[in-house]
Amino acid sequence: MPQLFEQDRLDVWHDGSAVCVIAVGSHGDPLDLSESEVEVLIVKLQESLEKARS
User: Fold this and answer.
1) What pLDDT digit, counting tens, does each position of 12-38 carry?
2) Of all helices (H) and strands (E), which one includes residue 45?
3) By three-state DSSP, how is residue 23 classified?
4) What percent of the chain has pLDDT above 70?
5) Pairwise CA distance, residues 21 & 46, whole Å
6) 1 against 11, higher pLDDT
7) Cβ-count burial of 14 within 10 angstroms (0-12 exposed, 13-18 middle, 19+ buried)?
8) How far apart are CA 7 and CA 17, in angstroms?
9) Cβ–Cβ under 8 Å, residues 14 and 40
10) E-assigned strands of 1-54?
11) Looking at the predicted structure, is the pLDDT value of residue 5 above 80?
12) Under DSSP, is residue 13 helix (H, G, I), strand (E, B) or coil?
């Protein structure tokens, strides 16, 4: 995952059949991600989607 400030939240997980995503900065604003950070996030999304489908 990308380097974030301590209170920033960026995570992807599956909960049953749902894929959950959170991307919020420490001040409550949406996170601005670089191309490489988005690519890492996409991989985690795909992994969570596979788990949710199984």
Assistant:
1) 888 888 888 888 888 888 888 889 888
2) helix 35-53
3) strand
4) 91
5) 12
6) 11
7) middle
8) 28
9) no
10) 9-15, 18-24
11) no
12) strand
Structure tokens at 29: 């604003």
pLDDT mean over 40-52: 91
Element (H, E) at 39: helix 35-53
Q: How many residues does the chain have?
A: 54
Residue at 6: amino acid letter: E
CA-closest candidate to residue 11, choices 54, 52, 44: 44
Q: Which two tokens stand for residue 46?
A: 């795909």
CA-closest candidate to residue 9, choices 20, 23, 30, 29: 23
